[in-house]
Amino acid sequence: MAVPKFTKAYAKLLAEEEREELGCHPFRPLDPYELAEHHGVRVLSLADIASEGGVLLDAHTHFTVNRPDAFSGALLPIGTGHAIVVNSAHSRERLRSTVAHELAHILLEHSFTTTFHLSGKCRQSDVKQEAQADELSGELLVPHKAAFRAARQQRTDEWVASTFDVSIEFARWRMNATGARKVAARAQAKAARAISRP
Ligand SMILES: [Zn+2]
After folding, report:
1. Is residue 23 domain-shared with residue 42, that is, in the same domain?
2. Are residues 62 and 52 in the same domain?
């Protein structure tokens, strides 16, 4: 079946369905590793690959010690499926968002052979597909509903980050990109005006 044309509404729906399949409540953190497993996608770390030795061991040292920011993740075709390779030198929060992003490419059935995330962006993926994978991974890790509720409750970006097990940057991006903070601020201003009216 063909994948529907990408819209933000589609990303919301797809993320909701994926979360539901794992029995993950919209206001609870999602485990992207569990979702990958659910789709039969293996998640390997550079350390796993380095255990093969040789040139791969050199690559492991290069990306985890010399230039840890140069590589975040890659999607590799394996047989009829895919494997996600992540940089074991990164923080847990960063690894979680990398896995969600790479998985989003698979869920959106993007056409690719191999993608490499170098310094934050996939090297062999087009700009549109990158934005789509970001949007879907955002909905998976911090659903818009959760962002809106957190904004209404005047939660800080730090609170959102620790509640959903994402980095502060990721939490801030979601709170702004979903429009959650703006909508909550407007609602509060409106309520304040209503109270101050004689
Ligand atoms: Zn990507």
Report:
1. yes
2. yes
